[in-house]
Structure formats: structure tokens, C-alpha cells
Amino acid sequence: MKIARSILFATLCLAASLAQSATFTVSSLADSGAGSLRNAITQANSAAGAPHVIAFQPGLSGTITLASEIRISNSMSINGPGATLLTLDGADSTRLLRIERTSGAPRSVTISGLRFIRGFAESGGAIYAFDDDVTILASIFSENGASFRGGAIFLAEADLTLDGVSIIGNHAPSTGQGSGGGILFSAGTLTVARSYIAQNTANFGAGMSIVSPRAHAVITDTLIQDNIAGHTGGGIQAGTMSSFRMSGSALVGNFSGQPLGGGLYLTGSNDPAAGAAIIENTTFSGNVSRHPSGQASALAASGGNLIVRNSTFALNATAPTTPPVAGLITGALWVDSTATTVRIESTLFDSNTHGNTGVLADLAHVASSASNPSIVSATDSLFRTMPGASEINGDNLRNQFATSAQLKPLTTADGGGFVPVHPLARTSPAIDRGSNPGGLIWDQRGAGFVRAWSDPGYRNDPLNSHADIGAFEYRGDAFFHGDFEQR
Where in the sequence is the domain holding 454, given as residue range(s)? Predict the structure, then answer.
């Protein structure tokens, strides 16, 4: 009986709490006044019973041009009508939204279905948030800027979730300490899914800059493309990460001006309690370190433990417009000399180069420190080059060296949505010669493309795993489409 009363009491309390939540409707494109977005948020900030809902009058579309930022200090959901229908415009003179409570416990804010353009501030041109959790869904950020960091979004000391978000053409300074052309994130958990981060610029981390030893990141099904860093981390700069995981994604055509991290510069944690960073089912293609002494075109790993598995590195280049530097250790994947452990598993390297003569450059491992060594292991992988004696100084098992993977051009036409992949030719030596150490169900393309499948009439190695090397599984869709069609 007491239990029944407790359940009833809790139910009534919950109902009372929900009953206090309110919906405030935007009916005007004006910057202020009755029916404006500013007025609706101001009311929601002061009303009890949060989280509240900001809704938009059916049929309302166009642009709301803001003369000053709108502050959000309470928990709420802002449910826009669609990113192609309603735009917030800062006219390059003001930040758009500032999410920061004045007191009390952390708030939670969800934003969906809006476009943010031409916001500008020192940090977080479109959105600035501190110590309050933010979720952004199905929205677009373009042409926003910061004079310091976080061209589109700045968030620190809380969690940020992006799902179905496009962050295109935003900027922070490409000199000095300018960082996070698209996003600057610090100290919390960053979750990015099904998003597109492209054509952003900054000096460090043009697409994203993730900083602080208390930062965690999970990136899935996301394309990071054509971002340009003046210094380091064209696609992403991730510094001293507590944890990092990327899967089902691609870094394509990103640039760095200095030697390291055209695609991704990753600094791991050397805390013994920290787990390994993981990159899986991911393609690095066409990333560039433009510096004449470029060392890491696609991925630079410095510190901590990193596992790279079932991934593809192709057509990445260091110093592509200058003569190759004799004796310089360069590669698509570069590993620091100190306190860094990298395990390469079922991963494919092909047509990565250094210099304007196209010298092949897959793996670069700086001579390991004697007192605090770094270790690189490789298993079930394929390299276009023959690694030097010091480059793989850990396990070296079942690898293929000096071998062409017979990759096809980067494409989305082979299924898998908007995240591109390099398919394998039917005669590729990567077929059936890989492994599946992460127990993955799908290849990079996702549901419907199995991670391990073998053509019964065309197995390269029937005694080994039937998974292919790299991010792509040849005929991985046969699981659903059957084996009756022409192959």
C-alpha cells in the first residue's frame, strides 16, 4: 500500500511539474516586441516550470535580423520550422544566442530547425554557451565568425550534442591563437552525429577545436571536408583528450599550413586510467599538410593510446607543391616519438605522397624515445610502401607491404549516404585479408553494408577473416540484396 501511495505521489508531482511548462509562440520576424523571438525567450527565461517550448506560428518564414544577442538563462526547447525556412541573422555585428544562466543548477537547451548566419563575437559567433548543456538538431550554421575562437559555436564546461547539423563557411582568425573556425569545445562531452562540417577556417582546428584534458568526443556518420587551418588541424585539432572515438566518418580535403595534422591532430591522455582513443570505419582522403617540411597529411598522433582499425588512408599529401625534403619522416599517419602507442588494425594505406614528385609516404614514426618510448604495431593491414625499420616497432603480423590496394575514386554512389568512401576493385588484395577486431556489424557506409562478407567464388584468403582491409567491404550489401544479381 505504501508503495502504491509513493507511485501515485510521484506521478502527481510529475504531472504538476509538466503542467507548469509553457509554450511561447513566435509570430513575428521583428527583432523585439510582441510575438518576437526575443520576447518569447525573455518570457521563458523568467517563467517557472521549465523546460519551456519556443514554437513558431505555422507559416512563419523568413529572416530575423538581430541588433544584439539574445540571452537564454532557463531550460527550453526552441523548435524552429526548418533550417531552410527561418534564419537568424547577426549582420556581422552581433552574436546571435548566448546560453548562460545567472544562477542555480545547469540548464538544458535544445535548438532545432533554424539557420544561423553572420553572427560575430569574440567567442562563439552564432552561439556561446558556458556550463549549460546544449543540443542542436537539423540546423545550419554559415558565415559566422569570431575574433578569437569558435566561429559558429563556443561551448565550455558542459555537453554539446549535434545531430543533422551543417557547419559551413564559418571562421576564426587564421593567425595567432584563432581556433575552432566551426566549433570550439572545452571540458565536457561532445557528440556529433550525421553532420557536415566544411569550408571553415582558423589557425588551429579549422573545422573543430577540442581542448582541455576533461574533453570527451564521439563523432559518428559525419563528413569533415575542405576546412583550412593556417597552422594545425585542418579538420580537427583535439588536444589532450580524455576520450575520443570516431566511426563511420570521413575527413576529406582538409588543409594545414604547418607540418602536422592536415586532417586531424590528436593528442591523447597519458593518464593510465584513460582508455584508448579509437578511429574505426573512417576514411582519410585528400588531406594536405602544405608546409614544405610537412610530416602528417591525414592524422598526427601525439601522446596516449590510439587504435586505428578498419579505416582507409588514401591520396593524402605532405608538401605537394615543393620538392621532397631528403631524410624528412613523413606520412599520412604520423606518430610522435614519446609516450604514444598506436595500434593499426585492418587498415589500408594507398597513394599517400610527399613532395611534388609523388614520393609515397604512408607511415611516419619519429625515432622512439629511449626513456619514454612510443610504440607502433600493425596487424592485418595493407601499405603501399615498405615501412622503415623503426616505423613498426611493435607487433607486425599478417601485413601486406609495397602493395597497391586497387582503390576506386572517392564516391558516395556506392551507398552509405553523404559520407564518401573509396570502394575496392574486385581484384584488390585487400579483399578477405583484413580482420574485424572491434566486432563491427557494418562497414563505413552503415546499416545494410555488412562488415565481413566473402564472395564464395572469389576469396583471396578463405582461411583468414572474411573482412576486407579498410573502411569498405566489397559487396557488403550482398547480405540484403542476395547473391543472384550480376557482380
Answer: 172-191+205-487
